Amino acid sequence: MNKRHFKVMGIVLAVLITAAILFTGCGNVDKPADTASVVASDAAGAGTTAVSAANGTWQWGDPAWEAAVRAKVEGKTFKIGFTPPAASEFYDIIMHGAYTMMNELHDRFGVNFEFEFVAPSEHDAVESQVSTIENWATKEFDAVLVCTAGDFDSMNAVYEKATAAGTAVYLFNMPAELWDVDSIKATSVISYDNARQSGYLVGQYAAEKLNGQGKILFISGNDGHWTTSRREGFMEAVSEYPGLTIVGEQRGEYVRDAGMAAAENLLQANPDVNFIYGENEEMAQGAVQAVQAMGLKLWDGSEGIIVVGADGLKSGFEQIRSGGLTATVDVGSVDQGREAIKAIFMHELLGYSLDKVINVPTILVDKENVDVPEAYVDWALAATESYK
């Protein structure tokens, strides 16, 4: 045979091996491979190991590592408390993200979880949260996940007390970028940034859609760290465009009806605005209702009032599809829940070190790209508690 024949045979052999692998189900979600890896030969005959992502080995290592972890944690029960600043659709998505990771850890390694949710009646009911954290520490919870509107220094004292009692404190959805990282008295902060809680992304979107010229309304939440961070990011972006002017701002209390009332007040004074930024998605959806109630035109892709929020809610994605809400920033709600549980597992149960701040990816979502983030939220919301 000449060199050309060898080359052709090599190509044919590679194709046959690839076909055999696909036929037996390697990498196929419907029929995953039974082993952690497959051995493929290239045309020159050299063996290479290809790891299959279908059985999760990309995330958790090979069977030997998994067996070692299972030997360490199987049968243990880990108690975790989860306290957001209020009950809402947003925090429910984060909690379901946590469910998905606890389910995965339970199924893969045999560790059990007790998970307790307690939320105050409203964002400013911080004393209720403090009592909840202290109660969990008294009950010897292993870890607590906290997102709070409370004063930074006062809450630091609460975290130190819980830690001293043996309960590890992890923060989520908190603007760690506002503080000196070394001053945060929690084990780790699982959140996001992308320039001040993604406020910068919204400002960039406003500049792009308005071609650097337009009038903007800003509906803020309660005075505090979230509003401070998101406003700073938004202002930083729009300040780069002298033609963008913020003509009005009012609090919307992070809820839809107050967001609607704030938008109505602002629109009565400024009916010719081009863009409304609701600091969270509930307030932004309230602003959509206000625009509609006042007979004003919502953005249709070429004209009307653009309304943008931030969170990444199922209800927000549905409004984007229907032409109400123009866009939102998905701040990684599912991943905040997943990464928080993974951080607790890796640090508290396996002894690995952690970054003080773990930021998850975010994405600005409009009609062009809503499919992927919506599917991810749908997957998390479908999760049930099977980690016990």
TrEMBL record:
Residue ranges constituting the Periplasmic binding protein domain according to the UniProt record: 80-345
One GO cellular component term noted in the UniProt record for this chain: cell envelope
Pfam families, alphabetized: Peripla_BP_4
UniProt lineage: Bacteria, Bacillati, Bacillota, Clostridia, Christensenellales
Keyword field contains Transmembrane helix: no
Localization, UniProt: Cell envelope
InterPro entries: Peripla_BP_I, SBP_2_dom
Location, primary (coarse class): other
Taxonomic superkingdom: Bacteria
Single annotated GO MF: carbohydrate binding
Keywords: Signal
Family per record: Belongs to the bacterial solute-binding protein 2 family.
Protein name: Ribose ABC transport system, periplasmic ribose-binding protein RbsB
